[in-house]
Design goal:
Length: 450
């Protein structure tokens, strides 16, 4: 379609080459004198934009039937200030040799578009310009300074990215003992130690009541309140990973002797067995020292037994010991003297005279009351209490059996008694031997003085 057929008035001027129909919707302008260029050739429909706020009335019939006015305003775009790029950190990263690094994406502030680049990469790493990402697997240990750049039409920025590549780290090895013992309500300390590449962090779980863990000095401390066996989880971690072990902590109670602390017996009598016992965690060992003569301690069954020899009061030291402590107590044993069997102490030989008065007293030691007896006495002698007396009427040597008896026993001895013939002279002839005559020289006054 020719220009003349679109715009009938020669006052409207079209600027620019417009070739249709592909140029439908293209903007063309009209000058302030509304004249078209003489060589303009358009076809199809066009949008009109009037320069310098000049008014044009496309509905004016002189513009032709195909000129249509559309009432709208084009708003000019709002543009911020253009800014040069500035790279974002971090600018130090780490990696392990022969292991993929965490991909590093280069970013920057500034007006888009921004172009990125990374140079001086270590072997095994590469840079993707589309995603501006550094990735790959470093092949050697070392510290690498990688050049980073970001640029746009306003300028550029550069930084050094420090990549530290190290050998893979092994997890720590816990070296502290894995068994321990503690005593109820007494202070306990345990230090968790480990070897390996630092930094190493420590943790502990499943502690019994009364204990706590200080990660600063790696110490378990406190006073456990309840006896028992506890499996405490120990942990040590570094860049190589965590290591865990189980600490078996046995919390026990010291022994407390609970058997009676007084006992009694009688000298010479079997002592009533005394059993030594104690409360507390097993295993408990016992001892008893300073026992009276005749008594002994049997560690196999923790008993004191025997027959005490002497009376008296004895302070026996008792001791009970286990892994958690020792208890010492004093057992007071009172040994009574008791009954002592008699022992004849009088002489076992004696002499007398026939027809002369005779007397012999049996004596004995031992607990009272003691009874005495004598048998096989010569004629004329008898025993009363402890005394043998009378006038023996026959001469000779007699083995008299003596006995002394109490509730504790009897002692038997033999008295060798010799009775001599003596004298049978009757000086006054009154028929009474001189030894029996109170007046051996006066026949008129003779009488037996016995």
């Amino acid at each position: 379609m020719g220009l003349g057929s679109l715009i009938d008035c020669g006052e409207f001027k079209i600027e620019g080459d417009v070739v249709g129909p592909d140029s439908q919707g293209s903007q063309i302008t009209a000058t302030d004198d509304s004249e078209t260029k003489s060589d303009s050739d358009i076809s199809g429909y066009v949008d009109l934009w009037v320069k310098n706020n000049n008014e044009i009335d496309p509905n004016d019939g002189s513009k032709g039937n195909n000129v249509t006015y559309h009432d709208y305003t084009i708003t000019a775009p709002s543009c911020g200030e253009n800014v040069a790029p500035e790279l974002n950190g971090p600018f130090q990263i780490g990696g392990l040799v022969n292991e993929p690094i965490t991909p590093y994406v280069i970013t920057a502030t500034g007006t888009e578009p921004v172009d990125y680049n990374a140079t001086n990469l270590p072997s095994g790493l590469s840079f993707n310009t589309t995603t501006h990402t550094i990735s790959g697997t470093p092949t050697a240990v070392g510290t690498y300074n990688i050049n980073l750049t970001a640029s746009n039409f306003m300028g550029d920025d550069s930084e050094i990215l420090v990549l530290i590549v190290t050998q893979p780290t092994e997890p720590p090895v816990i070296t502290s003992l894995l068994t321990a013992s503690a005593t109820v309500d007494q202070s306990f300390n345990y230090t968790l130690t480990a070897t390996g590449t630092g930094p190493i962090t420590y943790s502990v779980s499943n502690l019994p009541a009364g204990l706590s863990f200080n990660s600063g000095n790696q110490q378990i401390s406190g006073s456990p309140s309840t006896a028992g066996t506890y499996n405490i989880v120990l942990s040590a971690s570094n860049y190589g990973g965590p290591t865990t072990e189980i600490l078996v902590l046995t919390v026990g109670t010291p022994p407390t002797i609970n058997s009676p602390l007084t006992a009694s017996g009688t000298a010479g009598d079997q002592f009533i067995t005394h059993n030594l016992t104690a409360d507390g965690s097993q295993d408990i060992t016992y001892s008893a020292t300073n026992l009276p003569d005749g008594l002994s301690y049997n560690p196999a069954d923790q008993t004191i037994n025997g027959t005490p020899t002497f009376g008296g009061v004895y302070n026996v030291t008792l001791q009970a010991t286990n892994d958690y402590g020792t208890d010492v107590q004093t057992l007071v044993i009172t040994i009574n003297e008791g009954l002592e069997a008699p022992l004849i102490t009088s002489a076992l030989t004696d002499n007398g005279m026939k027809d002369f008065p005779y007397s012999y007293t049996i004596t004995a030691s031992g607990s009272q009351t003691i009874t005495f007896d004598a048998i096989n006495l010569p004629t004329g002698l008898s025993i009363s209490g402890s005394v043998i007396s009378g006038v023996p009427t026959v001469a000779g040597t007699f083995n008299v059996s003596l006995s002394a008896t109490n509730s504790a026993g009897t002692d038997n001895k033999t008295l060798e008694l010799t009775i001599g013939t003596g004298g049978e002279t009757d000086a006054d002839g009154d028929g009474i031997p001189n030894n029996l005559d109170a007046y051996p020289d006066d026949a008129d006054r003779a009488f037996n003085s016995y």
